[in-house]
Amino acid sequence: MARLRFTADFDYRPTPMSTIAYKEGMELTVRRECADEAVAKGKAVEIDPPRKAAKVDEAEEDADAGRG
């Protein structure tokens, strides 16, 4: 799997009977085969995955609630 930003419309054909259309500007995770093909054709660039939100420690949250 790879994270891509599509720079142009791109049609990926995983099988001869199916097509997945990606539109310019979309950012999402796709299969490696799709990523390799799109990047090779200049239709996408590989990007880093989005950062996960920081977890709030429950103990820290409880301590903050007691302050006032």
Q: SSE layout and pairings?
A:
Blueprint: E1 2-6, E2 10-15, E3 18-22, E4 27-30, H1 32-40, E5 44-46, H2 58-66
Please outline what is shown here.
The chain is an alpha+beta fold and 68 residues long. The protein has helices at residues 32-40, 58-66, and strands spanning 2-6, 10-15, 18-22, 27-30, 44-46. The model has no long low-confidence stretch (mean pLDDT 88).
Number of distinct beta strands: 5
Helix percentage range: 25-40%
Which runs of at least 5 residues are low in confidence (pLDDT < 50)? none
Our count of helices gives 2
Query: What is the arithmetic mean of pLDDT?
Result: 88
Radius of gyration, Cα only, in angstroms? 20 Å
Derived from helix and strand composition plus strand pairing, the structural class reads: alpha+beta
Describe the structure.
It is a single chain. This protein has helices at 32-40, 58-66; strands at 2-6, 10-15, 18-22, 27-30, 44-46. The chain is of the alpha+beta class. It has one domain (2-49). The strands form 2 sheets. A 3-stranded antiparallel beta sheet has the order 4-1-5, covered by helices on one side. It is elongated. The model has no long low-confidence stretch (mean pLDDT 88).
Which characteristics define this entry?
about 70 residues, alpha+beta, two-stranded antiparallel sheet
